[in-house]
């Protein structure tokens, strides 16, 4: 009798596991085409324009030179002054440390949603690290200071001075350095939520700076959920 009972139990467990695999296969079959359709139409969800951000950054630098604080205010004020963007631009200049890929700096979140984020990122003392391999294109508009970058196989650094844009294409990766003081307007467009894992990894595994992790989560969540409630995907 015992062997018979054991056989029935084994069959039952096997059926349960098979059922889960079948469920996951069906779920994947449903979600895959939905993801593909959304991914092919991401452009329709963007509210910031590449040439617009380059233009306002250039004019801010031309007007204020090395005064980073004045440059940031100029950019945020102009973006917030546009009717189509006013409700999506965070004018509360709240800074928080950011540790990611071994690099440390601080950021001010101007906008964060499912498909876009716009932040001021930088440091007054310099930093260096891994860019991360992301699910979004990242446009790093250098405002003050200089950023350098490196890819394996290259014998010379990429150099990005004030007014230039470092475009990190989706899925690519580099080593980067911001020597001394350097600040940038960073704009990412694509799938933003998966990028958060990279943004939180160092805090969870290295710095263990719980107050900063909490503050970052609060500011990011407030922006993403708030913009989603306004219909911004």
Automatic annotation (TrEMBL):
GO terms for biological process: ergosterol biosynthetic process. The keyword Membrane applies. It comes from the Eukaryota. InterPro entries: ERG2_sigma1_rcpt-like (IPR006716). Pathway: Steroid metabolism; ergosterol biosynthesis. One of its GO terms (cellular component) is endoplasmic reticulum membrane. It is found in: Endoplasmic reticulum membrane. Keywords: Endoplasmic reticulum, Membrane, Transmembrane, Transmembrane helix. Coiled coil: none annotated. Its EC number is 5.-.-.-. The chain crosses the membrane at residues 20-38. Signal peptide: none annotated. It is an enzyme of class 5 (isomerase). Its main location: endoplasmic reticulum. Pfam families: ERG2_Sigma1R (PF04622). PANTHER family: SIGMA 1-TYPE OPIOID RECEPTOR-RELATED, SIGMA NON-OPIOID INTRACELLULAR RECEPTOR 1. Belongs to the ERG2 family. This is C-8 sterol isomerase. It comes from Chaetomium globosum (strain ATCC 6205 / CBS 148.51 / DSM 1962 / NBRC 6347 / NRRL 1970).
């Amino acid at each position: 009798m015992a062997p018979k009972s054991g056989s029935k139990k084994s069959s039952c467990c096997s059926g349960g596991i098979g059922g889960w695999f079948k469920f996951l296969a069906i779920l994947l079959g449903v979600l895959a085409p939905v993801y593909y359709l959304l991914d092919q139409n991401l452009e329709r969800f963007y509210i910031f324009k590449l040439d617009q951000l380059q233009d306002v950054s250039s004019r801010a630098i031309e007007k204020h030179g090395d005064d980073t604080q004045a440059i940031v205010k100029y950019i945020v004020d102009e973006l917030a002054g546009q009717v189509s963007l006013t409700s999506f631009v965070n004018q509360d200049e709240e800074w928080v440390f950011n540790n990611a890929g071994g690099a440390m700096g601080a950021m001010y979140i101007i906008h964060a949603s499912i498909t876009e984020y716009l932040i001021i990122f930088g440091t007054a003392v310099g930093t260096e690290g891994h860019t991360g391999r992301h699910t979004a294109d990242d446009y790093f508009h250098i405002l003050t200071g200089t950023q350098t970058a490196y890819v394996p196989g290259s014998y010379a650094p990429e150099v990005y001075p004030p007014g230039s844009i470092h475009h990190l294409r989706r899925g690519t990766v580099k080593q980067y350095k911001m020597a001394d003081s350097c600040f940038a307007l960073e704009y990412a467009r694509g799938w933003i939520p998966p990028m958060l894992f990279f943004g939180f990894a160092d805090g969870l595994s290295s710095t263990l700076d719980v107050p900063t992790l909490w503050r970052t989560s609060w500011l990011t969540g407030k922006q993403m959920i708030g913009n989603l409630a306004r219909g911004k995907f």
